[in-house]
């Protein structure tokens, strides 16, 4: 039986993945406080729908950085897709291309960005700013040449977290798998996560490229304002899916303050714990232009390759359309803030 929602996809993936691999994908840092909080925070928010609006079938497409996506749900960057399925990021790319979506492809992809781009998916390239400016520039030029439409800089990772459930800091990939975006031989230590990285590196990047720059991993409104001041074209409110700083705040809880600080100057996106169409609606109401999903894509990939990713995206799309309709709304681009109240019950 096909899974009917994203949670069932997780269970189906768990049933078929090697337990260590499942833990690598599913796990978070330390006590997994943040991992759980991301989802729990969505459950605390309640919706106050409008009635008799006559809004008709809702329009789901959104424009971000001048590009139109068929729905306000992007694929977040997750490493090592070939651990989930032999076709890896190629399968993900095909599904995203077919869905008219946007895929943020990872520096730590197990398929070269050029090959993922060849699937026809709209691609944004995620990487970590490197202490060696020559290496950063090399990555930027390569992403430009591959046709990536934006650079997504993950800024929540001045160090690798200490993992536990994820026994896998996964410092070495199995034989036969590599990270070709690193020019690599599978040795992911070629990526340096450095606490020396600062806004100066963002400034340098801004001078290096005319591609849009998206800063991923912002939770504090002051950082959101700094991001805009330093030339970011969009920001992603994210805590890395609870995989870096444990006890980092839940993303949906931080979204309103970040959206206020940005004041509409650049689009704000959010990831972390989005599992239902109603989660997407809540994020849109609280100031996000779109959201991104990480683990659910990996679950779809694990279960059925490109078809599984396509099905995950289709399920969320159908849920989103239904949720908007039940809220009396005609467009994913116009979700009013008063749709959401924060005095819901404590999470189950
Ligand atoms: C990630 N994430 C991530 N982020 C990033 O910027 N670069 C990366 O290489 C990775 N790798 C990665 C691997 C795996 C297995 C997971 C689950 C996550 C974080 C990802 O982009 C995103 O922030 C979260 O996954 C969003 O939370 P959900 O949707 O998984 O709850």
UniProtKB/TrEMBL annotation:
Keywords: Flavoprotein, FMN, Oxidoreductase. It holds the Pfam family FMN_dh. Its EC number is 1.-.-.-. This is Alpha-hydroxy acid oxidase. It comes from the Bacteria. GO terms for molecular function: oxidoreductase activity. Residues 1-345 form the FMN hydroxy acid dehydrogenase domain. It comes from Nonomuraea harbinensis. Belongs to the FMN-dependent alpha-hydroxy acid dehydrogenase family. Its cofactor is FMN. The keyword Iron-sulfur does not apply. Gene3D superfamilies: Aldolase class I (3.20.20.70).
